[in-house]
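Ligand-bound model needed. shikimate-3-phosphate.
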Amino acid sequence: MNRNISLVGFMGTGKSAIGRNIAKELGYDFVDTDRHIECEMGKSISEIFSELGEKEFRKIESKYLKDLLNNEKKVIATGGGIVLLKENRMLLKEKTFVVSLKAKPKTIYYRIKRNKKRPLLNTQKPYKKINQLLRQRKGLYDFGDITVVTDYNTIEALAKNITNYYKSYIAKHS
Ligand code: S3P
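Prediction:
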């Protein structure tokens, strides 16, 4: 296993906030795949979805994920749908220590409701859509080396726990 950490999980489970803290703790680089794609393409995720469609976005996401995994010592906060492609799940499992984040639909809803930047949740009934997508993606986030519930603890506490677990995992496996 390379020394990379990835965070997978549904939208609003805390991947970016927790990932940024883990990177700080470890002195690794932090990358958010969505922000990286936006920077590289010069377009927002919403623009990519509306101009090229979700299927094309998934291809773009996969390509940039592969590029990012050529390096080590990165903490990668992935987009919530990256797990839809089996090749991405396999690549993450092979090349990173995978942190799977979980949260209740209600928590997700309260975290995302003011942010209009997620095209899939830009609907009249976002709570219903969250539940529908969670059902469709059932099991797809369950390949983590560690699974962490993010409803109740602070970002800092969660990041610290994950970092400690990662350090002991590395010590055991190297
Ligand atoms: C998506 C999640 C988003 C972003 C895009 C699609 C998804 O990332 O990649 O809007 O399909 O779950 P976040 O999980 O960082 O919000």
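The first strand starts at residue 4 and ends at 9.
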